[in-house]
Write a structure and sequence with these properties.
The structure holds 2 protein chains of 2 kinds. Chain A has 9 helices and 5 strands. Chain A has a 5-stranded parallel beta sheet with strand order 2-3-1-4-5, with helices on both faces. In chain B, strands 2-3-1-4-5 form a 5-stranded parallel beta sheet, sandwiched between helices. In chain B, helix 4 packs antiparallel against helix 5 and helix 6 crosses helix 9. Chain B has a single domain, classed as P-loop containing nucleotide triphosphate hydrolases (Rossmann fold), CATH 3.40.50.300. Chain B is globular, with a radius of gyration of 18 Å. Chain B is built from 10 helices and 5 strands, in the order H-H-E-H-E-H-H-E-H-H-E-H-H-E-H. The chains are: A alpha/beta, B alpha/beta.
Amino acid sequence: MRQTYGKTLPGMRLENLTGKLIVIEGTDGAGRTTQINLIKPWLEELGHAVLDTGITRSRLAGDGIRRAKEGNNLGHVTQSLFYATDFIDRLENDIIPALRAGFIVLTDRYIYSLMARAIVRGMDASWIRSIYNVALKPDAVFYLRIGVDQLLPRVVFSGGFDYWESGMDLFQGHDMYDSFCSYQTILLKEFDHLAEEYKFEIVDASANAEDVCNHLKKKILAILKPDETQPAVSNPQAYLIETLMQKAVVNLLAKRNGQAQLSESNIDLPPFIPYSTEGNGKNAH
Amino acid sequence: MVYADASFWNAQSEKMDMTSCIQPDSFDSFRIPNTSASVHQNGKHGLPGRLFIVEGIDGSGKSTQLSLLHKWLESKGYGVVFSEWNSSTLVKDTTKLGKKKKLLTPATFSAIHATDFADRTERSILPLLKAGAVVLCDRYAYTAFARDVARGMDCEWVRALYGFAVKPTVAFYFRVPLETAIGRLTGARDGFKYYEAGLDLGLSTDAEESFRLFQGRIINEYEKMIPEFGLTVIDATMPVEAQQAQVRQIVKTHLEDAKKLRTKQ
C-alpha cells in the first residue's frame, strides 16, 4: 500500500493507488519542463495514461497565487502556505484520483521544491515538513541537477531574469544578476540536503536534453516493469491477514448476492516465503 | 506582566494539558524571521503591543463584546487595530472561489484559512504589535483548531500549521449553550451558509440540523482547548453589560506600561 510522509487527510484512502508517481525535481532552468514534454508523449505511445501536474496548476489556488505574485506584498509565511494550499488541492483532486485510475502521474516539482523555497526564505525546516507530511511518497524522484554557472547561459537565452526565480523578494536592493546567483546558490545547497534525506536519483542536467531524456527513459522503464527479482510479498503476516479479510469481504458480498462463495482453493495466494531469522534466506531484509 | 509573546507555543507548552492530543515535543513552532531579534532587543521576551482575541461559536455574542472593548480602549487613548477572521485582501478571492464553487475539502479549507491568517499576521498583526498597538482579533487560530478538527483534520497537523502565530495576551472564549446561540441566530439571518453549517460533511441534508451537529462538535473542541491554551472563559448567557464589565476588568490588568499611541505625549 502507498504511504504518506506521516499523516493522512480526511477521506484519503491509500489502498489501490495502482498508478505510478514520478517526480521531476530541480532548480529553475534545469530543464524539467523540456524533459516532461519529451517523456509524456513517449509514455503515451507505450500505452500508458499520463497526468502531468505542477506547481500553481490547482483549480483552487493557481490564479490566487499568480495574482498575489504580481504585487509586492506577499509575505514569506503566506507564500509558503499559499503553495501548500495549491499542492493539497492537486493532491486530493488530481494526483490521488489519477493514481487510483492507474495513471502515471508525472509531476513537475513536488513538495521538495516547495520545502526548499520556504527554507531558504527563513521558514523553520520542521514546520514546513510537518505541513507536507500529508504528501504521498513517490515511486521515484529524478533530481535534475545543474550548477549555477551552467545555469546562467540558459537564463540569458531564455529571455532573461525573472523576479521570483532570482529571489528578488529575498535579496532586495541587489540587481537581478547578483540576486539570481545568491538565490540559486542557496537553493541548490538546500536541494542537495533534500536529495540526501529523501534519496533522490541525481541526474546530471548539464548534459544535452536528449542524453538526459534517454537516461530518464531507462530509469522510468525500470519502475514500470514489474519487479521479478523481488518476491511479491515482503511481509507475509500482513499479507495473509489482508488476503483473509479480502476473502471474507468477497464471500460476504457473494452471499448477499446469492452467488457461489470462494473456496480455499480458488483464491490466488502467492508462494509464501517465510522470514529467515538467520538472515540467509532470500526474503530476509 | 504578560506581554504578547512572539511565539505562540513555547510559553504555553510547559503548562500544557498532557491529556490533550498534542505532545509538546511534536510542536513545530517557529518565529517568523526578524521577529525574535526585536523580541530580545526590548529585553522582555515580548512584543510591546497587546493582543486580545475573542472566540466562540456563531451567535455567542463575541463580536458585540469586542466592538464594545474597542470603543473603550480607544477612549483611553490606546492605538487600537481590529482584524477579522478570513479578511486578507490577498487571499480572500481564493477562499471565495473555493466556497462558491464548493471546491474546498477539509484539508484545503484548513490550508486556505491558514494562508489568510498568515497574510494578516505578517502584514498587520505582527508589525502593529511591534509598534505598540493594541490589536483586537475577532476569531484567531483557535477557530481553525475547532473547525478543522471538527471537519476531521488531524489535531496535531492543524496546530503545527499555525506554528507561526503570535500568542495572544488574553484569549477570551464566550461560552454559550448551542440552543441559545441558535435562538439568537434564527431571525437575525436568512438561512445557514454551506460551510458554516458544515453541510460539506454530509451530517444532515437539513441545514439547521447540520448546523446544530457541526456547531456541537466545535463546542467540544473549544472545551478541550480551554485547559490546553489557557482560554479565559466568559459566560455568554449573562447580560451584555455584565460580560463587558468582566472583559474590561481582565484587559485592564494587562495594560500597565502599554503605549497610549493616541495620546499626545
